[in-house]
Automatic annotation (TrEMBL):
Protein name (Swiss-Prot/TrEMBL): Deoxynucleoside kinase domain-containing protein
Organism: Chilo suppressalis
Domain spans labelled Deoxynucleoside kinase: 30-227
A Pfam family assignment: dNK
InterPro entries cross-referenced by the UniProt entry: DCK/DGK (IPR002624), Deoxyribonucleoside_kinase (IPR050566), DNK_dom (IPR031314), P-loop_NTPase (IPR027417)
PANTHER family listed in its UniProt record: DEOXYNUCLEOSIDE KINASE, THYMIDINE KINASE 2, MITOCHONDRIAL
Assigned protein family: Belongs to the DCK/DGK family.
Length: 265
């Protein structure tokens, strides 16, 4: 009973739409990867397409909740702040999952799945979270998973070596991240691999497209272009087959999509 009341309050606070099996939703892509793997750069690559909505990770919300920088607090004192931070991450990510978009395709930077199976899992395994705190976060994830549609149609995994992302983090010089050790990135990498590649951790809710994110900036654009056809072709196929999804602005028939700026699906 308490859980149902909490859920009702959450729905009212977030103004979530009532969702069921007949609710329309866009073709949804989760862009997953380690810290510094290039997720934001990947999303920016898709700004050229009109019929794709891009939802970036709400880092600024984490850095300023009524004046409090939860990201900074978590990195400086994870034993004290990890539970608070991950609770707020869940709230903000749920808002992204439920956000109504005007386009037939939605690309999201990370998801509640990676929050649970990678980041919460990591701080549980290293002893930062008390087992009771982990149980609360896990119950919230299970409840959301069972009652709110947060699924995806495709996952793009930006696979990057821990040593490379460690150097990128140093170069981008985000103040909160300067204390991130290589060992933390290595453990996150293993969890991403277990979840998305080996399928030995949690639920992988969609097919996974793996891209080489170790490439430098001069080469990685070509790797991202390689993903365009697969994402857009699958999106059109799913949208055209299902009456429960948003229809593209123009019907698409025949062969592969020609990838050009400002394409309309």
């Amino acid at each position: 009973m308490l859980t149902r009341r909490l859920f009702s309050v959450t729905v009212k606070v977030l103004n979530l739409p009532k969702m069921n099996n007949t609710s329309k939703r866009p073709f949804t892509v989760f862009v997953e990867g380690n810290i510094g793997s290039g997720k934001t750069t990947f999303l920016e690559h898709f700004c050229q397409f009109e019929d794709i909505t891009l939802l970036t990770e709400p880092v600024e919300a984490w850095r300023n909740l009524k004046g409090w920088n939860l990201l900074d607090l978590m990195y400086k004192d994870p034993a004290k702040w990890a539970m608070t931070f991950q609770s707020y991450v869940s709230l903000t990510m749920l808002d992204m999952h439920c956000k109504v978009t005007p386009t037939p395709i939605k690309l999201m930077e990370r998801s509640l799945y990676s929050a649970r199976y990678c980041f919460v899992e990591q701080i549980m395994r290293n002893g930062t979270l008390h087992p009771a705190q982990f149980a609360v976060l896990d119950e919230w994830f299970r409840f959301i998973h069972n009652h709110i549609p947060i699924e995806a149609d495709l996952i793009v995994y930006l696979k990057a070596s821990p040593a490379i992302v460690h150097e990128r983090i140093k170069q981008r010089a985000r103040s909160e991240e300067q204390c991130v050790p290589l060992s933390y990135l290595e453990s996150l990498h293993k969890l991403h691999e277990d979840w998305l590649i080996h399928k030995t951790l949690g639920e992988c809710p969609a097919p996974v497209l793996v891209l080489d994110a170790d490439l430098d900036l001069s080469e990685i654009t070509e790797e991202y272009k390689r993903s365009e056809h697969q994402i857009l072709r699958q999106a059109v196929d799913v949208v055209m087959r299902s009456p429960n999804k948003l229809s593209p602005k123009k019907p698409v028939t025949g062969g592969a999509i020609k990838i050009v700026p400002n394409i309309r699906l």
